[in-house]
C-alpha cells in the first residue's frame, strides 16, 4: 500500500504509465465528484463523476466508436447527436419515444402499425400514395362513417358491389353508365 498525502506524480509530463500491457491494475476507486482529465494541461477532455447520477463528458466532446465518424456527443446544450457511417441499430423489445419525431429519408415500417388515437389525433398526409389501399380481409372496413363522410370521390374506373339507400342518392345524382341494382 502506498499512501500519498498530496499527489502522486510522474517525473515529467507524459513521463510515466500507470501499469503496463502485461501488468494491469485491477480496480480504480475515485471519490464523489472525481474528474478524469485527458490531454496536455488537463482540460482538453474531462470525464466528471456526478454524485449519485452518472458521469459527464465536458463541452461538445464526443465518445467515439471504431473511428471519428461514429460517435455520441452533444453539439450544443440542447442537442444530443448519435452518428454512424451506415446504421444505428437499437435492439429492444420496445422503443419508447416521448417527443416529436422528424424523420428525413425513406422509412420502412415492418409489423403492425397503429397511427394515432381515433378521436384525439390527426394524421396528415402531404405526400402522394404510390400503392394500393387493400383491406386485410374482404368487406372488413369502411371508408368513412354515416357521421364522418368523405366530401367527394374522384375515381377514374371502379367497381361497387352494391349501392344501398338508393332513395337518398337519387337517380339525378348518378351520371354515366351503370350496371347492377339498387338495394
Radius of gyration over all CA atoms, rounded: 32 Å
- Please describe the biggest sheet, giving its number of strands, its sense, and whether it closes into a barrel: 3 strands, antiparallel
Approximately how much helix is present in the residues? under 10%
The share of residues in extended strands comes to 15-25%
Explain the overall architecture:
With 183 residues, this protein is mostly beta strands. It is built from one helix and six strands. The protein has one helix at residues 166-169, and strands at 35-38, 45-50, 54-57, 62-65, 67-74, 80-83. A three-stranded antiparallel sheet has the order 1-2-3, with no helix packed on it. The chain has a three-stranded antiparallel sheet with strand order 4-5-6, with no helix packed on it. Strand 4 and strand 5 form a beta hairpin. The longest helix is centred in the C-terminal third of the chain and has 4 residues, at 166-169.
Helix-strand layout with pairing:
Elements: E1 35-38, E2 45-50, E3 54-57, E4 62-65, E5 67-74, E6 80-83, H1 166-169
Antiparallel strand pairs: 1-2, 2-3, 4-5, 5-6
Q: Keywords for this structure?
A:
183 residues; mainly beta; 3-stranded antiparallel beta sheet; 6 strands; 2% helix
Task: Give a quick precis of the structure.
This protein has one helix spanning 166-169; strands at 35-38, 45-50, 54-57, 62-65, 67-74, 80-83. It is mainly β and 183 residues long. Strand 1 and strand 2 (45-50) form a beta hairpin.
Amino acid at each position: 500500500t502506498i499512501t500519498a498525502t498530496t499527489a502522486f506524480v510522474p517525473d515529467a509530463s507524459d513521463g510515466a504509465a500507470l501499469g503496463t500491457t502485461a501488468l494491469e491494475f485491477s480496480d480504480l476507486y475515485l471519490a464523489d465528484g472525481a474528474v478524469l482529465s485527458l490531454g496536455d494541461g488537463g482540460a482538453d477532455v474531462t470525464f466528471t463523476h456526478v454524485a449519485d447520477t452518472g458521469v459527464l463528458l465536458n463541452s461538445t466532446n464526443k465518445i467515439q466508436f471504431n473511428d471519428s465518424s461514429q460517435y455520441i456527443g452533444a453539439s450544443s446544450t440542447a442537442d444530443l447527436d448519435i452518428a454512424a457511417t451506415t446504421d444505428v441499430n437499437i435492439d429492444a423489445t420496445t422503443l419508447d419515444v416521448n417527443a416529436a419525431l422528424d424523420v428525413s429519408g425513406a422509412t420502412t415500417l415492418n409489423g403492425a402499425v397503429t397511427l394515432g388515437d381515433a378521436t384525439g389525433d390527426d394524421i396528415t398526409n402531404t405526400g402522394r400514395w404510390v400503392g394500393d389501399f387493400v383491406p386485410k380481409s374482404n368487406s372488413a372496413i369502411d371508408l368513412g362513417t354515416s357521421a364522418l363522410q368523405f366530401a367527394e370521390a374522384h375515381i377514374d374506373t371502379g367497381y361497387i358491389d352494391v349501392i344501398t339507400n338508393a332513395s337518398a342518392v337519387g337517380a339525378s345524382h348518378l351520371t354515366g353508365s351503370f350496371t347492377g341494382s339498387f338495394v
